[in-house]
Target: Non-specific phospholipase C6
Amino acid sequence: MRSIFFILLILSSVFTLTHQQQHQPIKTVVVLVLENRSFDHMLGWMKKSVNPSINGVTGKECNSVSTKTICFSDDAEYVDPDPGHSFEDVEKQVFGTSSIPSMSGFVEQALSMSQNLSETVMKGFRPENVPIYATLVNAYMVFDRWFSSIPGPTQPNRLFVYSATSHGSTSHVKKQLAKGYPQKTIFDSLHENGLDFGVYFQNIPTTLFYRNMRKLKYIFKFHQYDLKFKRDARNGKLPSLSVIEPRYFDLKGLPANDDLPSHDVANGQKLVKEVYETLRASPQWNETLLVITYDEHGGFYDHVQTPYVNVPNPDGNTGPSPNFFKFDRLGVRVPTIMVSPWIKKGTVISRPNGPTPNSEFEHSSIPATIKKLFNLSSNFLTHRDAWAGTFEHVVGGLTSPRTDCPEVLPDVVPLRRTETDENRGLSEFQGEVVQLAAVLNGDHFLSSFPDEMGKTMNVKEAHEYVKGAVSRFIRASKEAIKLGADESAIVDMRSSLTTRSSIHD
Model:
């Protein structure tokens, strides 16, 4: 009798496991990473009027410098110029004069750049000015304890999103860029496991900062967002991982929608609205999870202390002198929203349930969760994604997908009152994108690379240059495949004075 009981118990547990595996509802993860805004700046005031469970702001959060105290207010508007967010800037913002991350140095750091910026960095948006987020936070889920992966700028943090390391970079490293960052990515893991991915880009796929992503075997994974995203969603053809890259250049009639200052966040809201409504109307809606996050805080105030104890170094790399950063603390908290018909309305998630007692949600949580959701046999990418909190459970609380999800989101009103200036110089990030384009184009062999190119171009010229470079690189790569080149090779373009290209491993 006892042996029959044990057999039934084993069969029951096998059935439960199989049943759970069969009923993992998410087959498509869509990731959209926007630029340079902190949690408090974008979502902090939603505590008051959208959901009191959010760890947001009350207006009593202040920073002082000498005789001046500035408290957090709800009158954020169009931002120009861009606040400081280099590794050194973030250190000042986070520590102030303290030995722990007291979040007390934002005003002082901003004042060191410009008198006006000290007010700007201490402002958050009213929910009605970011109506798409207000609706999504109310209808789905917000993470109020999700941090950028390092206390520094855009590129290192973007690298963490898909590879759980920046390979020792705390800033933009031009030499490394030309070669491409060598680390393995979650794209590689998906490919190894026979799963598909796609990068839907608007100006340039910044995922090409990874060397592996330049290989011929991945060239058909890159799609122009305007041509393909809506069509693939409508036809139920979105791959297991769909990455959406915003427009990084601000043009008349074609505004940047990445949220990087000086770009209008209303355009970022419109992009999120478009992505959401496209997914909502797709036959894949009931198996989709949309992740919206920001690469880093962009110099804007946040009141939540950045984790600085027991954060694992991803891969043994150390940052450059003079800081020799050990990658042992996280960056500032950023807005992160998740959308799926499997998510309970108005959910707020703070700390993860493991895998260690001190794990946190940060950008490495994305590859870590994709590994779990799709049951990938590939190893974790680094020690960091092995440690980061995962969010597969966010779609585990319901027995069937919701039918009350909004089909259409509110309209968005522009916040910027001035005309788009296509003649302005490039931001640091746009300059980095131009450098990536120059590598794709073969122009990094020219003596003017990389500093001069970005310095002499305005936004309109940079956009045209980048568009041409990406188009040539993709075309040459597809041509190489037709000619029978090895799929692990990379097309090596020669200077755009000619259109010659060669292939190398």
